[in-house]
Write a structure and sequence with these properties.
The structure holds three protein chains of three kinds. By secondary structure, chain B is mainly alpha-helical. Helix content of chain B is 65%, strand content 7%. Chain B has 18 helices and nine strands. By secondary structure, chain C is mainly alpha-helical. Chain C has helices at residues 11-21, 30-42, 66-77, 87-100, 103-129, 134-169; strands at 9-10, 46-51, 60-64. The chains are: A alpha/beta, B mainly alpha, C mainly alpha.
Chain lengths: 229, 567, 170
C-alpha cells in the first residue's frame, strides 16, 4: 500500500493547465525523483501532494486517508507532523534564529520550549550547522539555509518529505552535501522522499524517476531492484 | 501553541516591525485620548433647567453655566461640540491604519513562512492579531494613564464674576427659586469624568484592531504560497464619482428639507431638525470618503495621459508607478485631502458669516455672538491643524514604507547607474500626480459645501433710517432728527465696535437709529475667496513634495548592496 | 545501412550522404566505405543491385536486403550502453531513425536511451555514496558528469526532433 498517492489530479491556474490527470504514488521509505522542464507541473504536483494546494479534480490519498478534502487546519497539522516540506527558498522565518526555525514545528504543536530547542540543536549538529544556530537566516549562506530548512523538515520525524529543487540555487559541491545529508537522514528514519528537480545528477539519488512534461507523466518506469554494485 | 510560543512568534520582528509597533501604539494613544474626550463631552451635566415660571409656562433657565466659553455652556451648541470632538477620532484611526501598513511585505513573508512551517490558519490568525493587538493595547493603556495627568494639568479655575450667568427676571417675570451656579468657572470641562462605557471602548480598541488586522491579512494566511503568474490589472473605478455627486446632492436636499421643516413649524414650537442634520452629516461623511477615491481616479487618468506624452524617463516612471497602484497613493493622502476640504469649508463658512454680518449691519441685525463665533472658528482651525499634522505623519509613514520596500529595485537601479536625484524626482512625481488633483478636488468640494449647506444671505432692496437723539432729561421721549450719511457711518462703526467687545469705541452723534429694510429681498452669496484657497493649495502641495523628499532621504539611508545578494 | 534504407545508392553517393548528414563525425574515406560495404555484403545485409557501367566498385549500386532491413530496425530500437563519449553514435542513430523510420521512432529512441542513462547514473550515485576512497568517488563523478552532458543533449534534441525531421527528410 502506498504511503501517498495522487489519483487523476488536475489543477489549472487561469488558462494554463499545470496538472492533467496525473497518477503518482510513493511507498514508505521510497525515494522518488520527479523530473521535467520548467512549467512541466512538478512544483504544482508537490503543492497538491503536500496539501498546500487542493487539486481542481482528482484525489490525494495519504496513509490510507483522503487528504485533499480535509480542512486547511488539518492539512497544516499534517504538514507539521507527518510531512516535511523543503522548498528552494522562502521557507525560513527571517526574524527567527536558526534554532527557533528548526524548533518551530514542535513549538506550534505545543511542545515545551526546552525540549524543542534541544531537539533542534541536535538536528543542527547532525547537519553540521550547529555553529550558526543563533544566527538569522539572512546571515547564512544558501547551503547553510538549506541545511537548516532540512533540519526543520525532519525535526518532527515525518513519514515523508517533499523537496522542491532543494539544491537549485546552490553550487554542485554544496548541493551534493545537502543531498547526501538528506538521503542519509531519510534512510535512517525510514522517511520517504519525493524530490523535484530538473537536474539529472540530483535525480540520480532516487530509487526511481517520474518524468513530467506539460502537466502529464511521461514515464514512471520503476527500475528493477538495484543490482548490488 | 503555548502563550509563550505565541508571544515569541508575535513579537519576532525586525527593526521595521518595531517602528511599526511604536507608531501604532502612538496612534492608538491618540485615538484613546480622542475616545476619552468624547466620553467627557458626552457626559457633561446639563447647564440649563426647565422650570415653570409664575405664569405656569415652561421655560428654560440658565442655571448652571460652569464654563468660561459659551461653546461648552450653551445646550444648543452641544451637538456641534460633540461632532467636533468625535471628528478627532477620524485622523487617529487613519493613522493606526497607516501605521499598520508599514513594512507590510516583510510581515507577509513572515506569516507565509510560518504557515509553510506548519502553522494552521487559526494559529497564524492568532499571531497576526496578537501583534497588532498588543501595540494598540499599549497605546490605549498609555492614553488611560495619560488622561488623569492631563485632567489635572488642564484644570484651571477662575472666579472672575464676569462669567456669572443667571438672571433674576426673565420676560419681565421673576425667576422661580432655584440655586444657580456662582463660580468658579473652568475653561475646559475638567470637572467631568468620562462616561463608564468609555473605558470599555478603550479596552475594546485592541480587540478591534486585532480583528481588523486578521481580516486584512486573510489572503496571506489562507494561501501562503501565492501564485504570482497573474498580473494585477487595476482600473479606475467609477463609483467614487457617483458618491461625490450623491454627497453634494444629499447636502442640498437636507438643507431644503430643513428649510421646509422650519417654515412648517408653528410659532413657539422648536423645529425638529434632527433628521436633516443627520442627512447633512451623512452627506459630509460620504464626501469625505469620496474625495480621496476620486483623487485616485483622477490621478490614474492623468497618469495615463502623462504616460503617453512623457518625454523624460522620470515622468514616465512616475506615471507608470501611479498606474500600477493608484489607490495606495490616495489612501496615504486621504486625511490631507479631507483636511483640504475642511479648510475650504471653514474659509467658505467664515466668509459667508462675515458677509451676512456685513449686510446685516446695514440694517441693524447681527448674526451670532462675536466672541462665540471666534471660539468656534478657532476650534475649527485647531481641528484642521490636527488633521493636517496627523495626515502629514500618515503620509510620511506611507512614503517611508514605500521607499523602504523599494530598496531592492532602487539598489539595482543605483548599481546600474541611475542617479539618485532621478529616483527622488520620480518618487516626487508619483505622489504629486495624485496629490495635485486630490488637493484641488478637496478644495473645490469644500468650497461648494457652504454654498449648498447654508442659506443664502438676504439683502434688502433699500433701507430707510430714522435717527434719534435722547434729550438729557430722563423720561422724555427721544426726538427724531434728520440722518446724515456721515453720522450713520459713525453709528454703524460704533455698533461694530461694541459688538466686538472692544474698548475705546467712537462716539456717535445719535443715541439710537432705527433701520427699516424694504423688500424685495435678494438672495446673495459672497464671492469665493480665491486667493486664500490658492495659498492653501500651494502650501499643501509644498508640504507633500517635502514629505516625499524627506521619506526618500530615510529610504536612502537604508539602500545598500546587501539588497542585491542572491545567494 | 541507414543511408541505404531509402533506396539503392552508389558507393560515392553513400560517402557524400554520410558526410552531409552526419557533420559531427569524421569524413569517411572511400576505402572505408567499400570495406564496410564488402563486409555487409558478405554478412548478407546488403546486395549489389546493378551497375551503371561494367566497371569497378565505384559504379555499383548497393541496396538493403530484408535481413538487412530487419537488422537496421533492431538497431534503431536498441539503446547504446551508457558510457562517456557516445555522442557521435547517438546522433547517428537519431538521424538514421529519421531517415529509416519516422519522427516517433527517433523520439522513442531518445527516451529509451535516457532511461538507460538514468539507470546507470543511479547505479553510479549509489556507488559514490558507498565509496570508500576519494579516487573511487572522483572516478564515479567523472562518468556521472559526462552522462549528465549526454542527458542534456538528449533533452535538447528531443525538443528539436521536429525541426530535424523537416531538414533530413524534407
Amino acid at each position: 500500500m502506498s504511503l501517498i498517492e495522487a489519483r487523476q489530479i488536475t489543477k489549472s491556474y487561469g488558462r494554463t493547465t499545470a496538472l492533467d490527470a496525473v497518477d503518482v504514488h510513493l511507498g514508505a521509505g521510497e525515494v522518488v525523483a520527479v523530473t521535467g522542464a520548467s512549467g512541466s507541473g512538478k512544483s504544482t504536483l508537490l503543492l497538491c501532494l503536500s496539501g498546500i494546494s487542493t487539486p481542481d479534480s482528482g484525489e490525494v490519498w495519504f496513509a490510507g486517508g483522503r487528504l485533499d478534502d480535509r480542512p486547511e487546519s488539518v492539512r497544516a497539522v499534517l504538514r507539521r507532523t507527518e510531512i516535511g516540506v523543503l522548498l528552494q527558498h522562502g521557507q525560513l522565518v527571517p526574524e527567527l534564529s536558526a534554532t527557533e526555525n528548526v524548533a518551530l514545528p514542535l513549538l506550534l504543536g505545543g511542545a515545551r520550549r526546552t525540549g524543542a530547542v534541544r531537539a533542534a540543536a541536535e538536528w543542527l549538529e547532525r547537519f553540521g550547522v550547529a555553529a550558526v544556530a543563533d544566527q538569522l537566516p539572512g546571515e547564512l549562506s544558501g547551503g547553510q539555509q538549506q541545511r537548516v530548512a532540512l533540519a526543520r523538515a525532519l525535526v518532527t520525524h515525518p513519514r515523508l518529505i517533499f523537496a522542491d529543487e532543494p539544491t537549485g540555487s546552490l553550487d554542485s559541491v554544496s548541493g551534493e552535501s545537502v543531498l547526501r545529508a538528506m538521503m542519509a537522514a531519510a534512510r535512517n528514519l525510514g522517511t520517504a522522499v519525493l524530490l523535484i528537480t530538473h537536474d539529472a545528477t540530483v535525480a540520480a539519488y532516487a530509487d526511481r524517476e517520474v518524468h513530467m512534461r506539460d502537466g502529464r507523466i511521461l514515464s514512471g518506469l520503476a527500475s528493477p531492484a538495484m543490482a548490488t554494485a | 501553541m503555548s502563550p509563550a510560543t505565541l508571544a515569541r512568534l508575535a513579537f519576532a520582528g525586525s527593526r521595521t516591525d518595531l517602528v511599526r509597533a511604536a507608531l501604532t501604539a502612538f496612534a492608538a494613544m491618540l485615538a484613546g485620548l480622542a475616545v476619552l474626550a468624547v466620553g467627557v463631552v458626552l457626559n457633561m451635566a446639563p447647564t440649563t433647567t426647565m422650570l415653570t415660571d409664575s405664569d405656569g409656562i415652561q421655560q428654560v433657565y440658565r442655571t448652571s453655566y460652569r464654563y468660561t466659553s459659551d461653546l461648552l455652556n450653551e445646550p444648543g451648541l452641544r451637538p456641534g461640540l460633540i461632532a467636533m470632538v468625535a471628528a478627532l477620532l477620524v485622523p487617529a484611526l487613519f493613522l493606526i491604519a497607516q501605521a499598520a501598513r508599514l513594512g507590510g511585505p516583510a510581515r507577509d513573508r513572515r506569516l507565509a513562512a510560518l504557515r509553510i512551517g506548519g502553522a494552521t490558519p487559526r494559529q497564524a490568525r492568532w499571531i497576526a492579531g496578537a501583534e497588532q493587538g498588543f501595540a494598540v493595547a499599549a497605546g490605549a493603556a498609555l492614553a488611560a494613564l495619560l488622561y488623569p495627568a492631563l485632567h489635572g494639568l488642564l484644570d484651571r479655575m477662575t472666579t472672575d464674576q464676569r462669567y456669572l450667568v443667571g438672571e433674576a427676571f426673565v420676560d419681565g417675570k421673576p425667576r422661580p427659586p432655584v440655586a444657580f451656579y456662582a463660580g468658579p468657572w473652568r475653561p475646559l470641562p475638567t470637572d467631568t469624568a468620562p462616561a463608564w462605557w468609555v473605558w470599555v471602548l478603550l479596552a475594546a480598541l485592541p480587540v478591534l484592531a486585532a480583528l481588523v488586522s486578521v481580516y486584512a491579512l486573510r489572503t496571506v494566511i489562507a494561501e501562503p504560497v501565492a501564485v504570482t503568474r497573474r498580473a494585477r490589472r487595476t482600473r479606475a473605478r467609477l463609483w467614487p464619482a457617483w458618491l461625490l455627486v450623491a454627497g453634494l446632492a444629499g447636502l442640498g436636499a437636507s438643507r431644503a428639507w430643513a428649510t421646509a421643516i422650519v417654515a412648517g413649524t408653528a410659532d413657539g414650537q422648536v423645529p425638529q431638525l434632527l433628521l436633516p442634520r443627520v442627512g447633512m452629516g451623512t452627506s459630509l461623511a460620504a464626501l469625505a470618503v469620496a474625495v480621496p477615491f476620486c483623487a485616485a481616479a483622477i490621478g490614474y487618468l492623468s497618469a495615463r495621459l502623462v504616460g503617453r506624452y512623457a518625454r523624460r524617463p522620470t515622468t514616465l516612471v512616475a506615471a507608470r508607478r501611479v498606474l500600477a497602484d493608484p489607490y495606495s497613493g490616495s489612501r496615504a493622502l486621504s486625511v490631507l485631502l479631507v483636511a483640504a476640504m475642511m479648510v475650504a469649508i471653514v474659509v467658505g463658512v467664515q466668509s459667508q458669516f462675515a458677509y451676512a454680518n456685513e449686510v446685516g449691519a446695514v440694517y441693524g441685525t447681527r448674526f451670532g455672538d462675536e466672541q462665540l463665533s471666534r471660539t468656534v472658528f478657532g476650534l475649527l482651525d485647531g481641528l484642521i491643524q490636527v488633521f493636517l499634522w496627523i495626515g502629514a505623519i500618515g503620509l510620511l509613514v506611507a512614503l517611508a514604507d514605500r521607499a523602504l520596500s523599494r530598496r531592492r529595485t532602487d539598489a539595482a537601479a543605483l548599481a546600474v547607474g541611475v542617479p539618485h536625484r532621478t529616483l527622488v524626482k520620480a518618487s516626487v512625481g508619483t505622489v504629486l500626480l495624485t496629490a495635485v488633483p486630490g488637493v484641488l478636488l478637496g478644495l473645490a468640494v469644500g468650497t461648494a459645501i457652504p454654498y449648498l449647506a447654508l442659506d443664502p444671505v438676504q439683502r434688502p432692496q433699500s433701507v430707510t433710517y430714522a435717527c434719534f437723539k435722547q434729550p438729557t432729561s430722563s423720561g422724555a421721549e427721544p426726538t427724531e432728527i434728520p440722518c446724515t450719511a456721515e453720522g450713520l457711518r459713525v453709528y454703524l462703526a460704533q455698533q461694530a465696535c461694541f459688538n466686538g467687545g472692544e474698548a475705546n469705541c467712537p462716539t456717535g452723534s445719535y443715541d439710537g437709529v432705527r433701520a427699516e429694510p424694504h423688500g424685495p429681498w435678494h438672495s446673495t452669496l459672497p464671492a469665493v475667496e480665491w486667493l486664500a484657497l490658492i495659498r492653501y493649495a500651494g502650501l499643501a502641495l509644498l508640504a507633500v513634495a517635502l514629505a516625499t523628499a524627506l521619506s526618500l532621504a530615510i529610504g536612502r539611508h537604508g539602500v545598500d548592496e546587501t539588497q542585491l545578494r542572491t545567494t | 545501412m541507414g543511408l541505404l534504407s531509402r533506396g539503392p545508392q552508389h558507393g560515392y553517393e553513400l560517402k557524400r550522404a554520410h558526410d552531409d548528414r552526419l557533420p559531427a563525425g569524421k569524413p569517411l574515406a572511400y576505402g572505408q566505405v567499400y570495406a564496410t560495404l564488402a563486409r555487409l555484403e558478405r554478412d548478407g545485409l546488403v546486395v549489389s543491385v546493378g551497375a551503371d557501367k561494367a566497371g569497378g566498385p565505384e559504379r555499383t549500386s548497393y541496396g538493403l536486403t530484408d535481413v538487412g532491413r530487419r537488422s537496421l530496425h533492431e538497431w534503431l530500437e536498441s539503446v547504446e550502453p551508457p558510457a562517456p563519449f557516445l555522442g557521435g553514435v547517438m546522433f547517428a542513430k537519431v538521424v538514421v531513425a529519421l531517415l529509416a523510420a519516422d519522427r516517433d521512432t527517433a523520439e522513442r529512441y531518445l527516451m529509451s536511451q535516457r532511461e538507460a542513462h538514468m539507470a546507470r547514473m543511479r547505479q553510479l550515485t549509489q556507488h559514490k555514496q558507498q565509496a570508500t576512497s576519494a579516487a573511487e568517488a572522483a572516478s564515479a563523478d567523472y562518468t556521472i558528469a559526462h552522462l549528465d552532458a549526454d542527458l542534456r543533449w538528449m533533452q535538447q534534441t528531443m525538443a528539436r526532433v521536429d525541426a530535424l525531421n523537416e531538414e533530413i527528410t524534407g
